[in-house]
Design goal:
Layout: H1 3-32, E1 34-35, E2 47-48, H2 52-69, H3 74-99, H4 104-122, H5 134-154, H6 161-179, H7 184-204, H8 214-233, H9 237-242, H10 245-260, H11 273-279, H12 284-307, H13 311-333
Antiparallel strand pairs: 1-2
Length: 341
């Protein structure tokens, strides 16, 4: 089977399976996993969470079928199986936390265990900074991976923002698995993630009938981090930085500000830029539409840095990505201009 056909079939199968599972699971989640609004919530009516179960199950059902029927190198197959297993373990941690919140220290240890398993056994050959001692590089990659898992969770605070943040990125990585530079097996994983989120999207559109929950946002963060790590390992380091830039900057700047104010950063809050935007006159649909447009622009800039590996193109692409992301963050942080006001 041609790579593009396999990628398309996996995406379609994952979307169909995830959508069907959302329908089947929602009554159960209404009964046992209802997220009730509080002072720090963005929703106003009780809404079931746990849609991430459908996303992950749909993606892995489609990918599992591909592993059964598509020829693939043993090492690539084993890497995918390990990443899937680590993601399921992280989903179990998230499900537990959704139902009965875990202490932050236990969550962090379990997250580090899952990220470490992926680093050591699914991507042991990747070296991003050969000048550094291997243990130091692995430690830095572990910290970055755990942070990415958490920031994906932190950023899942309004309807559709994870869909609009991860779908363009996963779609771009699926295409990179077809045309290069990403390896085909990782491209199939990206296609499965892309499809799973698309199947979930109709249930999470504003106003949402279903939330991802930690059971979804944590493993989605792990899968995305792994795919970006794989991309960076091909030499497309700048592209791997550009693709998730909105999520990374919003979450990281917010974390630094909260640390500077002496806040307990593991507690819920409403100080992300996209959350500020809801208080500054922007509707949820407007916010996620602008995030989606920015992410499509970031995909184009990332593609440019891959197509033209010249160092000046890398700097120009990263500068343009930082500029565009900074403009959107600034817009979200300020009161919306109104002629009536």
């Amino acid at each position: 089977m041609e790579p593009y056909a396999a990628t398309l079939l996996i995406a379609i199968a994952a979307a169909a399976a995830a959508g069907r599972l959302c329908v089947l699971l929602r009554p159960l989640l209404v009964r046992y996993a209802l997220a009730r609004p509080n002072a720090r919530s963005s929703h106003r009516v009780p809404t079931p969470q746990g849609g991430g179960i459908a996303v992950l199950a749909g993606a892995f059902l489609a990918l599992g079928a591909a592993l059964l029927f598509l020829p693939m190198p043993v090492a690539a197959r084993d890497a995918l199986l390990l990443v899937m297993a680590a993601s399921i373990l992280l989903a179990i941690v998230g499900a537990w936390d959704d139902i009965r919140p875990l202490p932050a220290s236990i969550r962090l240890v379990l997250q580090a265990l899952c990220v470490g398993l992926v680093l050591l056994y699914a991507a042991p050959e990747i070296r991003l900074f050969p000048a550094l001692p291997l243990p130091l590089e692995r430690a830095l990659a572990l910290i970055a991976g755990v942070w990415f898992v958490n920031l994906t969770n932190f950023m899942d605070g309004i309807d559709w923002i994870t869909v609009m943040g991860i779908v363009p990125l996963a779609g771009a990585l699926a295409l990179a698995g077809i045309a290069g530079p990403l390896d085909p097996a990782s491209g199939l994983l990206a296609a499965a993630l892309f499809g799973g989120l698309l199947g979930f999207a109709p249930f999470n559109k504003p106003s949402a009938r279903l939330f991802l929950g930690d059971v979804g946002s944590l493993p989605i963060g792990l899968l995305t981090a792994y795919l970006l790590y794989r991309l960076a390992g091909t030499g497309a380091f700048t592209a791997a930085l550009i693709l998730p830039l909105y999520h990374v900057l919003d979450a990281t700047i917010t974390l630094m500000r909260r640390l500077a104010r002496g806040e307990k950063v593991w507690e819920a809050h409403r100080s992300h830029f996209y959350q500020q935007a809801t208080s500054n006159g922007y509707g949820v649909s407007e916010i996620v539409a602008q995030v989606a447009l920015l992410n499509l622009g970031l995909v184009a800039l990332a593609a440019m840095t891959i197509a033209f590996p010249n160092v000046w193109v890398q700097f120009a692409g990263l500068f343009a990505a930082l500029l565009l992301t900074g403009i959107l963050l600034r817009r979200f942080s300020r009161k919306r201009f109104s002629l009536a006001g």
